[in-house]
Design a protein that fits this description.
CATH topology of one domain: SH3 type barrels
Strand content: 5-15%
Distance between the termini: 46 Å
Radius of gyration: 57 Å
């Protein structure tokens, strides 16, 4: 079964593990002795962790080795990987891992033979061997080395602006007949002939001068109406927009996944919830 480097198998593996990265984590024994650091990880064709590539600095020994994933315990919070039982003698006996080598079945068996306890009854057969035959090397993959996500639904409120209508203003002309009254004056001449006041009075002929032609002039006037039109502002129309605000409430049923832990036997399970969203 071919094995792949972590980034060769999944270039976005950090997103897959919610930003956690096993590379660079320090490797320590359960007694707190530093063995080295994690340089990479090897996964199978299904993406399951099989080995950690450890850059050892154990006393005077310095080389890269493979550590079966089941023999480790990863603590991403502490940025530490713990291993139980790895000593200098094992590091010296392990085959050196290099970037240019192909990890085939024979190389894996050389690695397993160093970690395999003397009491093991596994007889290696390259044609039939599977990882399930030695669960101590690989079964802890599900327990310590895979992250899965608990989902919950939330109601997200957003707004969109849509056109609900429009108002168009225009002008048109209406006509009507208007009447206006203007008082005017017109002069006329009234000629009255009345008897003389000095009737019977004799006038000296020499005092009387007879003549022809115009003897009086009176100018007569009349008023004529002059009608014209003037334009003036009758009314002003102001157009503006105002925004009416109100709160719209909506409700729906949302779901959230919770973790169910089932145990069998006399086990102690530490369920750390201090950093879980919603924990108190």
């Amino acid at each position: 079964m071919p094995l792949y480097k972590l980034e060769d198998f999944d270039q976005n593996y950090r997103q897959t593990f919610d930003g956690d990265d096993v590379k660079g984590l320090g490797l320590y024994t359960e007694g707190g002795v530093r063995v080295g650091a994690i340089a990479d990880a090897l996964v199978d064709q299904n993406g399951r962790f099989r080995y950690l590539v450890v850059d050892t600095s154990f006393d005077s020994v310095s080389k890269k080795i493979l550590l079966p994933i089941g023999l480790s315990r990863i603590n991403y919070r502490a940025k530490t990987v713990y291993v139980d039982g790895l000593g200098r003698e094992q590091v010296e006996r392990l085959p050196e891992y290099r970037e240019d080598i192909v990890v085939n079945e024979d190389f894996e068996e050389r690695v397993r033979s160093v970690y395999r306890p003397a009491t093991s009854n596994v007889e290696y057969d390259g044609q039939t061997y599977s990882y399930q035959q030695e669960p101590a090397f690989y079964q802890l993959n599900d327990q310590y080395h895979q992250n899965f996500r608990l989902y919950e639904e939330r109601l997200i409120a957003s707004k969109s602006r849509i056109k609900s209508g429009e108002v168009a203003l225009g002008k048109h002309i209406e006509t009507q007949t208007a009447r206006v009254t203007v008082p005017i004056q017109k002069e006329r001449v009234v000629i009255e002939r009345v008897p003389p006041t000095a009737s019977g009075t004799i006038i000296d002929p020499q005092e009387v001068k007879f003549h022809e032609g115009e003897v009086a002039r009176i100018e007569v006037y009349e008023e004529k109406p002059q009608i014209h039109k003037e334009t003036f502002v009758r009314e002003e129309v102001r157009v503006k927009k105002v925004v009416d605000r109100k709160n719209v409430e909506a409700q729906d049923t949302i779901r959230r996944e919770e973790l169910d832990i089932n145990t069998a036997g006399d086990l102690r399970v530490d369920d750390s919830t201090e950093n879980r969203p919603g924990s108190v």
